[in-house]
Amino acid sequence: MQMSRLSTKVGRLISIAGFAVFAGFPCVGQEAAGSEPKMLATGDFVSPDAPGVHVMTFLAEFEAGASIPLHHHGGASQVLLLEGDVDVTGADGTTVSFHPGDKMDEPAGWVHSGVVTSSEPAKLIWTIVLPDGAELETLDNG
């Protein structure tokens, strides 16, 4: 299967942007350990049948104890937790615990943070449907 030049170019930009966003997050546990979250794989899909959006998928691993600060995404996404335990807290203070096999649906713009609560790393698959021009992730102060 051959990709168009546009989707190839967009794919490279999205993959680079996705890594930079995860690596750029000041993950508290990660900083202390001197390492960044591991991006094990990235993928993206641009379809002529769905103009104006990118579907991106990331396989990521976060060290035990790592925390991700308050942030939101520019598109709706879904997370499937493969390994480890993670607590996700919304801006309203509500916390939900996720365990291997659990999935979480994130509406676009939902402000939340996360922390790996297990003694082992957390591995997850994150898929997002991102409209053209929308930010993948934005840090929120507060």
From TrEMBL:
Gene3D superfamilies found in the cross-reference section: Jelly Rolls (2.60.120.10)
Entries under SUPFAM superfamilies matching the protein: RmlC-like cupins
Top-level taxon: Bacteria
Signal peptide residue numbers: 1-23
Keywords: Signal
Domain Cupin type-2: residue ranges: 59-127
Pfam families assigned: Cupin_2
Descriptive protein name: Cupin type-2 domain-containing protein
Protein source organism: Albidovulum aquaemixtae
